[in-house]
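Reviewer 2 asked us to include a model.

Predict the structure of this chain.
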Amino acid sequence: MRKRLFATIAFTALTAMTAVSGLLSGAAQAADPIKVGAIVSATGPASFLGDPEKKVLELYADRINKAGGVDGRPVQLTVYDDGGAADKAASFTKRLIESDGVDVIVGGTTTAATMAAVPLVERAGVPFISLAGAVVIVEPVKKWVFKTPHTDRMAAEKVMEDMKKRGLTKLALLSEDSGFGKSGRDQTIAVAKERGIELVADETYGAKDTDVTAQLTKIKNNAAAQAVLVFGLGQGPAVVTKNYRQLGISLPLYQSHGVASKEFIRLAGGAAEGVRLPAAGLVVAAQLPDSDPQKKVVTEFTKVYEDSFNTEVSTFAGHAYDGLMIALDAVKRAGGTDKAKLRDAIEQTKGYVGTGGTVTMSAKDHMGLTLDAFHMVEVKQGDWSLVK
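Predicted model (structure tokens):
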């Protein structure tokens, strides 16, 4: 009798412990973090792109966690700074996948860093949302790779569209010998043929060059040129712009979306006056019409960013915001962080209104933006002005 009683008590206790253990396990599972990895160029030559990206990722991961996370799960953000070096980007990507066990990666500030990470994420089967501009990132489509910024091809199209409006048909190109610059050059050449624009000069400069007057002098002496397009990022385009004014070149000067930041205006100083470039609506948020679906999003993002960091908002900060939001929205729609389901959910993103425009992806489009998401802006009195 006594043995039977002890056996009953033991069984009851074991059952209770198992039930509690199950509840605790379920609670722990529900609270498992969403592991987001990021590689950005927070320092180095591309820091004015990567630093705001890093700040935004950290800011919004914290804000989301304070609001209760995503479906009760906190965001665990791991950020590595590649300093603008592609080999470091590859090394950190490998670490994020193998050591940190991330569910999704947001980052790759530059095209070179992104392309160094691509084979690693493709092989491992980890969703990757790039923050870089070159079209090669998503064309041809890669199963696990997506991006938030407009492409270099779109930038070339937008510039030539503006040229045609101004009656200009002959273009001089000056591109940087970086991944972004080389891809931009290739896309400009291709788009020029399609748009009936004659390329009358094709010069290059080094990303670390402190003087580009030799190349610009050739362009100045080219009687056929009617406009100049510079394809680069970081400090190089500011150097080009200063040299351009020093040489007294009077042709319209275009830059790419690789410099859509107030930092470019600061670096170039008064020489930036009159420069035109394609950019996201974020840089001219207050100038967008109230009917624009982006107006509310970019206005709110601008306020949060500028209140948080006491500095002007950056297009590149917006790229990071969009990447993080698209990833976390996909987690909700996928019902968790199963990588295959998460990849599919990112690909099925439809009607997301972000800082870069309205995003609708598909199996054939891993960016999801149209040319309408780009705005032509001009530097006027040291600020961006919407070209109408």
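The CA atoms of residues 376 and 388 lie 8 Å apart. The longest helix spans residues 2-30. We have added this to the supplementary material.
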